[in-house]
Write a structure and sequence with these properties.
By secondary structure, this protein is of the alpha/beta class. It has one domain: Dihydrofolate Reductase, subunit A, CATH 3.40.430. It is 21% helix and 24% strand. It contains 6 helices and 11 strands. It has an 11-stranded mixed β-sheet. The protein is globular and about 55 Å long.
Length: 269
């Protein structure tokens, strides 16, 4: 029996002449070219959600630092590649507390590549936290202040606000919770973000999707099962009624061994 190469393209509507068959890893998400913003109904960045889950839908499988155990090294590579091709990365407070990701250090070649694509040379990493309760200080805010932003609701304590402003650009909403449309306007109009990747968590994903403020979903389906109850899935929040489930259009499907990489376009919600 002749074994097939590990990486396969099954479908890609975004690549001219992208026939199904064996490909190199370098061909997956090599040239995404996201649109430079969305203007209707409000100005906001073009936004894609990027998640990895087990086959039974779990996106959090344990304590801090365990999320990376879901996907393979190829998933980690593709995640970084997707992020590299957008102006900004958006994270929810729960994800920051759980995994505490650091702000990335880009090489000169990567910064030049981003500049050539019309992106910020250094990405903006933005965090959404209703009350700004992020202690100890997350690693993402350890870098240059101008490369990060924090979006909070109006209930943030004044002393916490003063402390966080020393480390990041702080934007406080007039509402209790951070509204997706306000968030998008600030990112687009004040911070110049044209495209953005949201890494979750599931509650932030739901906020964006339910507001019609997410355009694509990148989903790695890892060939693993966890089982159990009360573990979050890709999307939490209120959910959609049975007669109005949100339809998706499959844009591409790749695989590396038994792991699958799906890219969907979201319909307006």
């Amino acid at each position: 029996m002749v074994s097939l190469p590990s990486v396969q393209r099954f479908l890609d509507k975004t690549v001219a002449g992208g026939a199904a068959g064996p490909v190199s890893r370098d061909e997956i998400y090599r040239d995404l070219r996201f649109p430079r913003g969305v203007d209707v109904p409000v100005a906001r960045p073009y936004t894609a959600i990027n998640m990895v889950s087990t086959v039974d839908g779990k996106v959090a499988i344990g304590g801090p630092g365990t999320t990376r155990l879901i996907g393979s090294p190829t998933d980690h590579l593709l995640m970084a590649r997707i992020e590299l091709q957008a102006d900004a990365v958006l994270l929810g407070a729960g994800l920051v507390r759980q995994d505490d990701p650091p702000y990335p250090t880009l090489t000169p070649d990567q910064r030049a590549q981003r500049t050539a694509m019309g992106l910020r040379p250094d990405p903006l990493w933005a965090v959404v936290s209703t009350r700004g309760e992020l202690e100890p200080l997350p690693r993402v805010f350890a870098g240059p202040r101008e490369h990060t932003a924090l979006f909070c609701g109006r209930a943030i304590a004044s002393e916490r606000r003063r402390a966080l402003e020393q480390h990041t650009q702080l934007f406080v909403a007039e509402t209790e919770r951070v509204d997706a449309h306000w968030l998008g306007r600030v990112l687009r109009e004040q911070l110049g973000v044209g495209s953005m990747i949201c890494l979750g968590g599931p509650t932030l994903n739901a906020t964006l999707v339910e507001a019609g403020a997410a355009d694509e979903l990148f989903l790695t389906l890892a060939p693993k099962l966890q089982g159990g109850s009360h573990r979050p899935t890709v999307l939490e929040g209120h959910g959609f009624p049975p007669e109005h489930l949100l339809p998706l259009e499959l844009l591409s499907l790749y695989g590396d061994g038994d792991e699958l990489y799906l890219r969907y376009r979201l319909s307006a919600s």
